[in-house]
Design goal:
- It is a single chain.
- The chain has helices at residues 10-16, 27-56, 63-87, 98-131, 141-160, 184-221, 227-268.
- The chain is mostly helical and 291 residues long.
- The longest helix has 42 residues, at 227-268.
- The radius of gyration is 23 Å and the shape is elongated.
- Residues 46-213 form the G-protein coupled receptors family 1 profile domain.
């Protein structure tokens, strides 16, 4: 029967994974937290405005805008998650209970997964409308609600799995260095799942680009194309491709790089050491602001 370390401190697991904890606040730590709180506040405000605009403006009462509002809700949730992180990071990390640490990480994982899956849903919706030459999807309100519910169910499932057993509290040798209470196998599963969704989204937008480019080339060869038909194509390009490409430019660097780092770092960076009593001396070891 395996021995579990449910009564140990967070510092015990950080020491086991050889990840340092800050013992006191330094100017750099304060700056990181201050900037993090400021960015979180901006994220909260801007996404609240997006949600309010979609809710109050009848022109936005279409599936694509509901999905955009849900993306704003996911980003809003991310703002809350990072604000919670800023209040529970640095030297405060060593003082967290195991439950609070899992809550902190689950908020981050859930918010990122919700954003990535929602971006895929938007890409699929735009793909469908572009190929059928419709400016707005004919998806029913019930299907939109069901899709949004499914997005959050998947995000919550992936984010809460570690709290319900897929952790390393009973298997110290499997602990990750990046998230010392998480199993490396879970981090890899979570990162690969999000990476697959992200790659599928890129492929969907790529197909839209190719399709629209060919469509526009055919229209250019037939100068007698109906003006209304041409306007519909251009509107689809604006609503489907421009939004998607702008989002992808930023997300390729942030999400793709982060997920690959998690996958590689979880397995190839610093194997944890299995040592009873670990963490007894780590509370006094200076380090950087840790997540």
């Amino acid at each position: 029967m395996r021995h579990c370390f449910y009564n140990e401190s967070v510092g015990f697991f950080y020491n086991n994974s050889r990840k340092e904890l800050s013992a006191h606040w330094r100017p750099k730590d304060v700056l990181v937290v201050a900037l993090g709180l400021a960015v979180s506040a901006v994220v909260l405000l801007t996404n609240l405005l997006v949600i309010a605009a979609v809710a109050t403006n009848r022109r936005f009462h279409y599936p694509i805008y509901y999905l955009l509002a849900n993306l704003a809700a996911a980003d809003l949730f991310a703002g809350v998650a990072y604000m919670f992180l800023m209040f529970h990071t640095g030297p405060r990390t060593a003082q967290l209970s195991l439950k609070t640490w899992f809550v902190r990480q689950s908020l981050l994982d859930t918010s990122l997964t919700a954003s990535v899956v929602n971006l895929l849903a938007i890409a699929v919706e735009r793909h469908r409308t572009v190929l059928t030459m419709q400016l707005h999807s004919e998806m029913s309100a019930q299907r939109v609600v069901g899709l949004i519910f499914s997005i959050w169910a998947a995000a919550l499932l992936l984010g809460l799995i570690p709290s319900y057993g897929w952790h390393c509290l009973c298997s110290l040798e499997s602990c990750s260095r990046m998230a010392p209470l998480y199993s490396r196998s879970y981090l890899t599963f979570w990162a690969v799942s999000n990476l697959v969704v992200f790659v599928v989204m890129v492929l969907v937008y790529g197909h839209i680009f190719v399709y629209v480019r060919r469509r526009m080339a055919r229209m250019a060869r037939h100068t007698g194309a109906h003006p209304r038909h041409r306007d519909t194509v251009m509107a689809l390009v604006k609503t489907g491709l421009i939004r998607g490409s702008l989002g992808l430019i930023g997300l390729v660097v942030i999400i793709l790089g982060g997920l690959v780092t998690i996958i590689l770092g979880g397995w190839f960076i610093g194997a944890p050491r299995h040592r009873h009593g670990a963490g007894q001396d780590r509370h006094h070891h200076p380090g950087w602001v840790d997540c």
